[in-house]
Structure formats: C-alpha cells, structure tokens
Amino acid sequence: MSDCIFCKIVAGKIPSEKVYEDESLLAFMDIGPVQPGHVLLIPKKHYERFTELPEDLAAALGRKLPALSRAVVAAAKADGFNLFQTNGACSGQVVPHVHIHIIPRHEGDGYSFRWVAGKYAPGELQTWRAKIAAALKA
Ligand code: 5GP
Ligand code: ZN
C-alpha cells in the first residue's frame, strides 16, 4: 500500500529503529511510546486487520512474541508487559496495517488499561457462546 506509513517503514522510505527483522516480520520502536521501550511487531506484507492474515503469518507473529516480549521486559527492567492490538478505528486503530504493541510495564507507572466490567442478564452469556461457536463453524 503506497500511502501506508508502516509499508513505507518496511520499504525503508521512512526511517525506523529496528529491533528485529526476518523475511516476513519487522519489529521497531514505537515513535510515540505509551512507556519507554514500547515496540511494534508487524507483518511486512500489508494487511489491515488481524482477521485478514493467512494462518502461517499469524503463526509467525505469535512465534516471535515470547522472545520479543522477553527482550522488551529485560531491556526496560519491567515488572510486566501488555500485548495490545487494534482492528478498525472504533478499536483505536490509527495505522491501518496490522501491528502488535509490546508495552513494558512497571509497578505504579500510572498507565491504565482498566475497563468497566459489564454484566450479562441471565442466559445471555450462553446465547453469546452459541452465536460465536456457530460463527466459528460457518
Ligand atoms: P494504533 O493506534 O494504530 O494501534 O497504533 C499505531 C502506533 O503507531 C502508535 O502507537 C504510534 O505511535 C505509532 N506510529 C505512528 N506513526 C509512526 C511512525 O512513523 N514511526 C513509528 N516508529 N511509529 C509510528
Ligand atoms: Zn501497510
């Protein structure tokens, strides 16, 4: 995609601080870190949403996450980390090229991903389970 920022980073048209690269993946420093050490892992090929990825590419992303997360945590001397991923503007996706955020976290760092937990009416949880299980089979 010619107007995609991350495709331009892959092509070397926009500079980036790379931490890992192979034939299908690239990891680089996020320019606007939630916390210092914030890394983005992307497929080199352009896909907008995680749901569009071929299984082997999704697997390649998943295979790299433990080692990359360990490296981020070690470098940041972090107490923990968040893996975060957005799909669509409604979810907060700004760059429409699949990316996984790896964000080092420290006790008391002040950042919060907390959400307000909702509550199902009686039977509603089971209805949702059935809907999703059926969609998975379709
Ligand atoms: P999103 O909100 O789409 O999940 O996250 C996009 C991320 O890309 C943001 O955290 C933002 O800081 C990062 N980002 C946007 N433009 C650039 C860029 O040109 N270079 C780098 N390294 N990161 C970028
Ligand atoms: Zn792209």
Structure description:
- The model has no long low-confidence stretch (mean pLDDT 97).
- The protein has helices spanning 5-10, 55-76, 124-137; strands at 18-21, 25-29, 39-43, 80-85, 100-105.
- Strands 1-2-3-5-4 form a five-stranded antiparallel sheet, with helices on one face.
- By secondary structure, it is of the alpha+beta class.
- The radius of gyration is 17 Å and the shape is globular.
- The structure holds guanosine-5'-monophosphate and zinc ion (ZN).
- Guanosine-5'-monophosphate binds next to strand 2.
- The site of guanosine-5'-monophosphate (5GP) has 13 residues, from strand 2.
Strand order of the largest sheet: 1-2-3-5-4
Tally of distinct domains: 1
Low-confidence stretches: none
Tally of helical runs: 3
Q: Based on Cα principal axes, name the global outline.
A: globular
Kindly report the CATH topology.
HIT family, subunit A
The molecules bound to the chains, other than polymers, are: guanosine-5'-monophosphate, zinc ion
Relative strand content: 15-25%
Rg of Cα set: 17 Å
Which structural class matches the secondary elements? alpha+beta
Mean pLDDT: 97
How would a textbook summarize the main sheet? 5 strands, antiparallel
Measured distance between first and last alpha carbons: 30 Å
Q: How do the SSEs run, as a string of H and E?
A: HEEEHEEH
CATH 4th-level superfamily = HIT-like
CATH architecture: 2-Layer Sandwich
CATH class: Alpha Beta
